[in-house]
Design brief:
The complex is a heterodimer of chains A (371) and B (56). Chain A has helices spanning 10-23, 37-45, 48-51, 71-81, 92-95, 104-109, 120-129, 146-158, 174-182, 195-201, 208-213, 224-240, 259-268, 299-302, 318-322, 354-370, and strands at residues 30-36, 56-63, 86-90, 113-116, 134-141, 164-170, 190-193, 217-219, 245-247, 269-271, 274-277, 281-284, 288-290. Chain A has 371 residues and is of the alpha/beta class. Chain B is mainly beta and 56 residues long. Chain B has strands at 2-7, 12-16, 22-26, 38-42, 45-51. The chains are: A alpha/beta (371), B mainly beta (56). The A-B interface holds A 1-4, 91, 118-122, 141, 144-145, 147-149, 151-152, 196, 199-200, 251-253, 258, 260-261, 264 and B 18, 23-24, 26, 28-30, 38, 40, 42-45, 47-48, 50-51.
Chain lengths: 371, 56
């Protein structure tokens, strides 16, 4: 298949792994963060870790959209789902994220009308099919998903679908990266930049990382060769004393991003003064809400939402995993009390979560190593 | 996903993924689109055109 097979070529993969091996300085430890959960998934699925020299370490970042939603926000969604006449719609992963007293799936089992959708357009369709009900879409995700929500809200407005609204929990990628770079817990040598977010925002928003923090960034695709190539490009920057934003994923990422998407987002959304991230706390200007022009489609204005802040369970170390401070297997409950079937933390829910990715793929390689 | 058919009036396209599953995709961000184009689709919206079909 075009754009897939050629980026999974094992022979080429070995060649790039050889280039990486040749580029590393013996005795130096390299720590690169893959920002996006999609990269984390690919790294474990394809065993990319196993192809790297021992002194190249990959650290997982905060780029899994489900993982960063705080518990209080899940509780807000559940409270909304229980309101009379509401059909609450969300992506499948979000249904399994634990709140303080169960998940949206539990709420559904208890009688709430919670429905899984693949896109906001599906939620709008449900609204059109149920004009006597209020349909709420729980919008989550980074800049990759936000344009889809924005276009659906514009469509709802144009088609005068009055019973549709959106509980907006979209977030933006730059503020948490800045927060991580300011963190004394973490020493990084470079970033594998988020591929799909960059199709929307372009490469420019990441220029502050080399400019202000002296770390190279290479925006990468999601196939194994993409990721290996990106690591090789970061190493080449380090070896030659360069420090800049490079784009490995040129087949879909223009340097300026998708201007139409940015325009529609600017029309429909505005930045919240601050937004809570699971494990990272409140980060200024990191979350989106509906703009005044679309306030009538804002579920948080249409319905009463508790808006309480809820602390994560003590046993859960998702926050440290999301900050790259610990690896999934170093969490106290990983694979025992917390599994994909019965997750305690968000990182074990989504396929893009570091814990779920490691549980599903990576642990087998590690078990082989231990044996 | 590969574009099968375009409904320009509604800004939607019928697309198929590699396993043959068909779905309706919002194309406002990548227009103009024609049958045979390869789109990168996220949450039901095409966010980038990976390849254009040869034009007549």
């Amino acid at each position: 298949m075009k754009f897939v097979d050629e980026f999974r070529d094992a022979e080429l993969g070995r060649v790039v792994a050889g280039e990486i091996l040749a580029a590393v300085e013996p005795g130096r430890h390299y720590k690169f963060m893959e920002v996006c959960g999609g990269h984390t998934h690919s790294i474990y699925k394809y065993g990319i870790d196993d192809l790297l020299p021992a002194n190249v370490e990959l650290v997982h970042g905060p780029g899994c959209p489900v993982c960063v939603i705080p518990m209080g926000r899940v509780d807000d969604g559940i409270a909304l789902a229980h309101q009379d006449g509401v059909i609450f719609t969300c992506f499948g992963d979000m249904m399994r994220v634990p709140g303080s007293d169960g998940s949206l799936l539990d709420a559904k089992a208890a009688g709430a009308d919670v429905r899984m959708v693949y896109s906001p357009l599906d939620a709008l369709r449900i609204a059109k099919q149920n004009p006597d009900r209020q349909v709420v879409f729980f919008a989550i995700g980074f800049e990759t998903t936000a344009p889809s929500t924005a276009l659906t809200l514009k469509r709802a407005r144009a088609e005068r679908v009055a019973n549709f609204s959106c509980m907006c929990s979209h977030v933006t990628i730059v503020p948490p990266l800045r927060a991580l770079l300011e963190s004394p817990d973490l020493r990084l040598d470079g970033f594998i930049g988020p591929g799909h977010v960059s199709t929307i925002v372009g490469a420019r928003p990441f220029e502050f990382i080399p400019a202000d923090y002296g770390k190279p960034v290479v925006i990468a695709g999601f196939e194994p060769l993409d990721i290996l190539h990106a690591i090789s490009m970061i190493l080449r920057q380090l070896a030659t004393g360069r420090c800049e934003v490079e784009n490995q994923y040129t087949r879909v990422v223009p340097y300026e991003g998708n201007l139409r998407a940015l325009e529609v987002m600017a029309e429909v959304f505005e930045l919240r003064p601050h937004f809570e991230w699971r494990g990272l706390g409140f980060i200024s200007h990191s979350g989106l809400k509906l703009s005044d022009a679309y306030a009538d489609l804002d579920a948080e204005q249409r319905f009463a939402v508790p808006g309480l802040r809820v602390a994560d369970p003590k046993a859960c170390q998702c926050g440290e995993v999301l900050k790259g401070v610990i690896k999934p297997w170093e969490c106290k409950v990983f694979g025992t009390a917390c599994t994909p079937e019965r997750p305690i933390g968000t990182c074990m829910v989504s396929s893009e979560g570091a814990c779920a990715a490691y549980y599903n793929f990576g642990r087998f390689a590690r078990e082989r190593e231990v044996v | 996903m590969t574009v099968l058919r375009v409904d320009g009036r509604r800004g939607l396209a019928l697309c198929t993924d590699r396993s043959g599953v068909r779905s309706t995709v919002e194309i406002a961000l990548v227009e103009p689109v024609t049958a045979g184009d390869e789109l990168l689709v996220h949450a039901g919206t095409a966010i980038a055109a990976a390849a254009k079909a040869p034009r007549q």
